[in-house]
């Protein structure tokens, strides 16, 4: 009955500090967003007490009649949102959604093919330190040095040589639309499954602002917390009944136990929000803002990988300024602009240093920032990068503190929570 503020002041203080950080900083991390109060409230409910192993109507525990309603709402809304026949809303994360598909369709030692990390792929797509790279023969494709876009000729050539059982399209730092039809044609030629991991651009697909991976993908995975603006979590979608059955058994009892019913409730709420016209407006603004941010950064003399973006995210190539991603991330952070350093294709720097930063407009747009605000943010980023390049860390204080003041004013104009 005691709230966390009274029962655990230490944890409470850390939560309050994080609230203030989110309020006072400009969030440009492309994988983050700001959920509604309704999503957050659903997540902090009594559903966290409930064990519900199994699926609606087929549980291994009693007392599931109400959480069955919750999970069915999440499933039905996901199906409507993405126009597909089956949804598994139980994966605890995007990584577990991917693991679930692997468990459903592959055996250890099978060959899989995904995009390499350096080109924008995700760890779970066959990277060496990840389980997907250890338990499978992982072949990795990349982007073409010509235009930094997916090298479909390479995908095709590698597919013919290695004959993977599963091809993965999608990633964490791909600014451009992927040609799903082309990927499916390559998969069909060798009899492979095509899995699209739309974790980043799922919200854009839901709003009709990005091509859908359906009908091309056999199976689609996603996170629910990026552009889709739901709670942290994952989901698996398909139109194929036999794949759906395998996926269900793979998630439970294959790799998970009791589903996080409170998170599933929050997913249902977020999908409900995404079905409303307001969400389309929001995503359209995310796209407009991304174009404004990219254009203004280019005007300020920064290079953007592929020259722009089709989505909510972009990669800034810092090499022409002679500064690294690591240094820029830290300098922006001192000015209360939050980003992450990110490798760019063919990056000469180590992954802990990098030559790039990744920027996204989903969180800022949720706050209410429009194109002018993102142009201002671009100007501030350019000031800081140029200052860092000219004066170095020790003498960039004046610039960083003047930007910090402007950031503070902007954040105060667009409060959250
Ligand atoms: N897939 C892609 C493309 C991602 O970008 C991410 C997260 O960054 C994931 C999967 C993993 O999601 P999670 O962090 O929820 O495990």
UniProtKB/TrEMBL annotation:
<keyword id="KW-0489">Methyltransferase</keyword>
<dbReference type="InterPro" id="IPR019798">
    <property type="entry name" value="Ser_HO-MeTrfase_PLP_BS"/>
</dbReference>
<protein>
    <recommendedName>
        <fullName>Serine hydroxymethyltransferase</fullName>
        <ecNumber>2.1.2.1</ecNumber>
    </recommendedName>
</protein>
<dbReference type="GO" id="GO:0004372">
    <property type="term" value="F:glycine hydroxymethyltransferase activity"/>
</dbReference>
<comment type="pathway">
    <text>Amino-acid biosynthesis; glycine biosynthesis; glycine from L-serine: step 1/1.</text>
</comment>
<feature type="binding site">
    <location>
        <position position="241"/>
    </location>
    <ligand>
        <name>(6S)-5,6,7,8-tetrahydrofolate</name>
    </ligand>
</feature>
<comment type="subunit">
    <text>Homodimer.</text>
</comment>
<feature type="binding site">
    <location>
        <position position="117"/>
    </location>
    <ligand>
        <name>(6S)-5,6,7,8-tetrahydrofolate</name>
    </ligand>
</feature>
<feature type="binding site">
    <location>
        <begin position="121"/>
        <end position="123"/>
    </location>
    <ligand>
        <name>(6S)-5,6,7,8-tetrahydrofolate</name>
    </ligand>
</feature>
<dbReference type="InterPro" id="IPR015422">
    <property type="entry name" value="PyrdxlP-dep_Trfase_small"/>
</dbReference>
<dbReference type="InterPro" id="IPR039429">
    <property type="entry name" value="SHMT-like_dom"/>
</dbReference>
<comment type="similarity">
    <text>Belongs to the SHMT family.</text>
</comment>
<comment type="pathway">
    <text>One-carbon metabolism; tetrahydrofolate interconversion.</text>
</comment>
<dbReference type="GO" id="GO:0008168">
    <property type="term" value="F:methyltransferase activity"/>
</dbReference>
<feature type="domain" description="Serine hydroxymethyltransferase-like">
    <location>
        <begin position="5"/>
        <end position="381"/>
    </location>
</feature>
<dbReference type="InterPro" id="IPR049943">
    <property type="entry name" value="Ser_HO-MeTrfase-like"/>
</dbReference>
<keyword id="KW-0663">Pyridoxal phosphate</keyword>
<dbReference type="GO" id="GO:0030170">
    <property type="term" value="F:pyridoxal phosphate binding"/>
</dbReference>
<feature type="site" description="Plays an important role in substrate specificity">
    <location>
        <position position="225"/>
    </location>
</feature>
<keyword id="KW-0554">One-carbon metabolism</keyword>
<dbReference type="InterPro" id="IPR015421">
    <property type="entry name" value="PyrdxlP-dep_Trfase_major"/>
</dbReference>
<comment type="function">
    <text>Catalyzes the reversible interconversion of serine and glycine with tetrahydrofolate (THF) serving as the one-carbon carrier. This reaction serves as the major source of one-carbon groups required for the biosynthesis of purines, thymidylate, methionine, and other important biomolecules. Also exhibits THF-independent aldolase activity toward beta-hydroxyamino acids, producing glycine and aldehydes, via a retro-aldol mechanism.</text>
</comment>
<feature type="modified residue" description="N6-(pyridoxal phosphate)lysine">
    <location>
        <position position="226"/>
    </location>
</feature>
<keyword id="KW-0963">Cytoplasm</keyword>
<keyword id="KW-0808">Transferase</keyword>
<keyword id="KW-0028">Amino-acid biosynthesis</keyword>
<dbReference type="InterPro" id="IPR001085">
    <property type="entry name" value="Ser_HO-MeTrfase"/>
</dbReference>
<dbReference type="InterPro" id="IPR015424">
    <property type="entry name" value="PyrdxlP-dep_Trfase"/>
</dbReference>
<dbReference type="GO" id="GO:0019264">
    <property type="term" value="P:glycine biosynthetic process from serine"/>
</dbReference>
<dbReference type="GO" id="GO:0005829">
    <property type="term" value="C:cytosol"/>
</dbReference>
<keyword id="KW-0472">Membrane</keyword>
<dbReference type="Pfam" id="PF00464">
    <property type="entry name" value="SHMT"/>
</dbReference>
<keyword id="KW-1133">Transmembrane helix</keyword>
<dbReference type="GO" id="GO:0032259">
    <property type="term" value="P:methylation"/>
</dbReference>
<keyword id="KW-0812">Transmembrane</keyword>
<dbReference type="GO" id="GO:0035999">
    <property type="term" value="P:tetrahydrofolate interconversion"/>
</dbReference>
